[in-house]
Design a protein that fits this description.
CATH topology of the largest domain: Glycosyltransferase
Bound molecules: 5-hydroxymethyl-3,4-dihydroxypiperidine
Radius of gyration: 27 Å
Distance between the termini: 55 Å
CATH class of the largest domain: Mainly Alpha
């Protein structure tokens, strides 16, 4: 076991933290979290810190939402019991890892193997000295299974030792239904779900099994006499099953899963998990030569992206902090479709499909929301949990401790177009017609229908969308937000495209779908008119989009004068003055440029970028990444690299504001976006993939793999040699557009293109 508990030696594949610093503890727990898209466990310490350990390490289960507080409060993810609790009892009392004992403790997150290791060099108590190594993982191969391994080497002392393994937090948030020796079954208070956790644990002393002493519900212990040189190996596995209907008892399923895990043994579970990670890295690794920090940032980002998704569950999506922390209570935002989906679409299409199916399964809730607000079609929840009903809290405490209204749940409506955008991108990139027929088309039609009813004709002959919030949340209740309106127009046009496509290619399906949706030609004609006359705020004289009606008349504030501030500008200026100013919270017109560059012809892309960049305070973690991607495409490589580093620092830098509430998964998706869509300049065309590299000066090369319509491509960009090499590793020949020149790519023939100017 000792060998298995040694992390990867190559320092570029691991994150390490030594010692103990109470101020950094919450950060580490988020950053060092492990997850497989179903289970997520914060990277908390492996041994008890005694009374100071007040919050047990969180184990999250995707989709386990409930409203445990007063009725009517916001639903959130409910943590499961902590199945990792271990106490080592010695004659003088339990062994406690004292916070002051900084010398001995190290934690290593192994990004390559997807596991968290810790090592306690010397744990000394008056009775005994020991070395302790631990590992924990949640299997990427069998997502319901978690594994904990502990290797103890006794260095001195001949005393009675007891290792006690238990589950903690048995009645925190969930109602216990059945607590047995090796199985717990709980139900949620209100949401009608249940959860089962089955466990099996073994302990060997010098290679001999020791029988456990059962201590009741999910708790047992082993006792032995220590002696110097003794090796003790402890293994515990857990199998977790969630049931979304309380009538179905998940206990049997959890027992079956633990039985299979026991048959495999910890070596088998570990081997399958590592093989699954190897295959994920094979598909998704991005290699940078010449910038060690960028390489680490990409590995860290891709580790969390691969950890966050679950291709086998269509009823969950990825929350703003994935399964790594409590912030935003597991709620799903546009972050998933706009910042994460591109990674999954191009490197893990099965995961992308499941994430979009979650939106299909929540389409009815989106229809209900639209109808409730007096519109047609589907308006998705700004914050969504399991059912898709709106879960944005209506109030929050502002920086000045005043209670403020949160209007996003009602007004941040661009989410519907963002989801449509992701559906279209997925279908374009995968050619998954079955998805389009079964789910995607309906999402596109119902969101297109929403916008066609939402935009109203006015005396100027144009359609206007009033009373919204764009991505820049400093400005509420605004009219004609360029991002919202242009995305809405794009959404309507794709809905019309999909109607034409279905009618032509699958007429029977079109007949049944259009009749089920009561969609006729006159309505489609009305959609067309709305799209044609949508107000966009574009001024052909200046080439600028006005972010929303009246934005140009607001107070201009020189953000350079506030450089070095540690809080967002709405805190510096106050909410009201910020609202009356041109200070922007995050990429808004710049996000539109990132998503629909074709709307910005000629010089307009650069003009809009430079105009809005200088007005943005990056008050959202999503903002630098979107700016970085756009800057990289425009060839502003130095600025783009600055944004890349700023984004990486959000979750990686110890100096950054606390990330106790979990990693910022959208910013991590943004790191991938900046590298692949930004510096490599990858874009999806109608019938091809395009690459237009503009690497930062210090990046000698950039390499990655992509999947496109069943093909597997490998692309390496060598800046030193000014050459791009592409290989088609699987699939039919295709066109790859390199720096605007179409090239044919066939299997077995590496394509080499000179990219020197
Ligand atoms: O979705 C974002 C939003 O754009 C800004 N506030 C935080 C949300 C979750 O990341």
């Amino acid at each position: 076991m000792e060998r298995a508990l040694k992390p990867t030696l190559d320092a570029t594949w691991v994150l390490a933290a030594n010692g103990y610093d109470p101020l950094r503890e919450g950060n580490l727990e988020s950053r060092f979290a492990i997850s497989n898209g179903f289970l997520g466990i914060r990277g908390s310490r492996a041994t008890t810190r005694g009374a100071r350990w007040v919050v047990p390490p969180r184990t999250y289960v995707a989709g386990l939402f409930d409203t445990p507080g007063a009725e009517g409060t916001t639903p959130g993810l409910i943590p499961a019991a902590d199945w990792l609790r271990v106490r080592i009892l010695l004659p003088g009392g339990p062994l406690v890892h004292h916070p002051g004992d900084v010398s001995s403790h190290g934690m290593t997150l192994d990004l390559r193997r997807g596991a968290l290791f810790s090592e306690f060099g010397q744990l000394k108590s008056p009775d005994v000295g020991m070395r302790l190594r631990t590992a924990r993982l949640v299997s990427l191969n069998e997502r319901s299974v978690g594994l904990q391994l502990i290797h103890l080497e006794i260095e001195e002392g001949e005393v009675e030792v007891t290792l006690e393994a238990s589950f903690e937090g048995l009645d925190l948030g969930l109602v216990p239904e059945r607590l047995e020796q090796d199985l717990g079954v709980w139900r949620t208070l209100r949401s009608g779900k249940s959860l089962a956790m089955a466990t099996a644990a073994f302990l060997q002393v010098d290679g001999h099994d020791l029988p456990p002493t059962p201590l009741g519900q999910l708790k047992c212990s082993w006792s032995w006499k220590s002696r110097p040189g003794q090796i003790v190996c402890f293994e515990r596995s857990v199998a977790v099953v969630r049931s979304d209907a309380q009538s179905l008892d998940p206990g049997g399923g959890a027992r079956d899963k633990i039985y299979v895990a026991r048959q495999l043994g910890w070596r088998g579970v570990l081997a399958e998990h590592e093989a699954a990670w190897t295959s994920r890295w094979q598909c998704s690794e991005v290699k940078v030569d010449g910038d060690a920090f960028a390489q680490k940032a990409l590995r860290f980002a891709i580790y969390h992206l691969n950890s966050a998704a679950n291709p086998d569950d269509e009823h969950v999506s990825i929350g703003a902090r994935a399964l790594t922390g409590d912030d935003y209570r597991g709620h799903v935002f546009w972050d998933t479709e706009i910042f994460l989906l591109p990674f999954y679409i191009l490197s893990w299409p099965e995961a992308a499909r499941a994430l979009l199916m979650y939106r299909f399964h929540t389409l009815d809730a989106a229809r209900t929301k639209a109808a409730g607000m007096g519109w047609q079609g589907a308006l998705y929840a700004w914050e969504s949990a399991d059912t898709g009903i709106e879960t944005t809290p209506e109030h929050a405490i502002g920086p000045d401790r005043q209670i403020i209204d949160i209007l996003c749940g009602k007004q941040e409506q661009h989410i519907s177009a963002d989801i449509a955008y992701a559906v279209w991108q997925y279908w374009q990139a995968t050619g998954d017609d079955a998805f389009l027929r079964d789910a995607g088309a309906e999402i596109l039609l119902e969101t297109g229908r929403f916008w066609s009813s939402r935009a109203r004709p006015e005396a100027d002959g144009r359609h206007h969308i009033r009373g919204v919030i764009g991505p820049d949340e400093y400005h509420e209740h605004i009219d004609d937000n360029a991002f919202t309106n242009v995305m809405a127009r794009w959404n309507i046009r794709r809905a019309l495209d999909v109607a034409t496509l279905l009618r032509g290619r699958w007429p029977k399906l079109w007949t049944s779908l259009s009749s089920r949706l009561a969609l006729d030609d006159s309505e489609l004609e009305q959609w067309r008119k709305v799209a044609e006359t949508m107000a966009t705020g574009f001024d052909p004289k200046t080439g600028l989009f006005e972010q929303f009606a009246g934005f140009f008349t607001l107070e201009e504030i020189d953000l350079a004068a506030y450089a070095g501030r540690s809080v967002p500008m709405d805190v510096v200026l106050g909410r009201e003055r910020t609202r009356q100013s041109q200070v922007i919270k995050q990429a808004d017109v710049v996000a539109l440029l990132g998503l629909l560059p074709e709307e910005f012809g000629g010089e307009n892309a650069a003009k809009n970028f430079l105009y809005y960049e200088s007005r943005c305070d990056h008050g959202s973690s999503l903002s630098p990444a979107m700016h970085g991607m756009v800057a990289a495409r425009l060839g502003y490589s130095d600025a783009a690299l600055r944004y890349f580093r700023q984004t990486a620092a959000i979750d990686l830098a110890d100096t950054h504001a606390a990330i106790d509430g979990g990693v910022h998964i959208a910013a991590l998706g943004g790191i991938w976006l900046m590298a692949v869509f930004g510096f490599a300049g990858v874009s999806l065309q109608n019938d091809s993939v395009a690459v237009d590299p503009k690497l930062p000066a210090n990046w000698r090369s950039l390499g990655f793999r992509l999947q496109w319509r069943g093909r597997h491509l490998k692309i390496s960009i060598d800046q030193t040699e000014q050459r791009l090499e592409a290989t088609l590793e699987a699939g039919e020949p295709m066109t790859l557009v390199v720096s605007n020149e179409p090239q044919e790519l066939c299997r077995g023939q590496a394509l080499r293109v000179d990219i020197g100017k």
